[in-house]
Amino acid sequence: MARIVISENVSVDGVVEVGDGFDRGDWYGRIGATDREAWAKLEYDEALGADALLLGRRTYEWFGARGWPSRSGAWADRLRELPKYVVAGETDLGRWANSTVLTGPVTEAVTALKREVRGEIVVYGSGRLARALLAAELVDELRLVTYPFVVGAGERLFGATDAVRSLGLADTRTVGENLALLTYRPA
User: Fold this and answer.
1) Of 1.20.120.450, 1.10.10.60, 3.40.190.10, 3.40.430.10, which CATH number belongs to 3-186?
2) The Bacterial bifunctional deaminase-reductase C-terminal domain covers which part of the protein (predicted)?
3) pLDDT for the residue 154
């Protein structure tokens, strides 16, 4: 059975997505070259360890709009070869090879996917999907790359919850000079 791993970039105050023109790419642009190199290596290594990607529609389209389906380089090649499962209603899958839309209720579709895939299914971005998976207790690991700034407002990974869910800290690591990777697993 596969393990669901949520991999998120998050501000110190817990924001994963900000509206009004400040998107994920802006996070990367606000850190220094050493941090960018270390972050890119971390992401590439994570992709090497993944057996599949699970994405929400907006994140899938975000990758497509930034040219990832046709980029060159080892990281882009690895993402292109990985099976990609998209939780979406209407999405143009023609952009990125090895992409499949999951149908039906999200929790049922992801539960079935966990039975089919072996190894790690990594969820990049996809805040709404990540929250749904967390609420359904389908997440096996959280990897939070914490960026050294406070955003103040925006979409958070953890919103209102119906119950306290305990997590255990599995690992901490400095990435570059200013980023922190915090890895949690359900307690």
Assistant:
1) 3.40.430.10
2) 4-180
3) 80
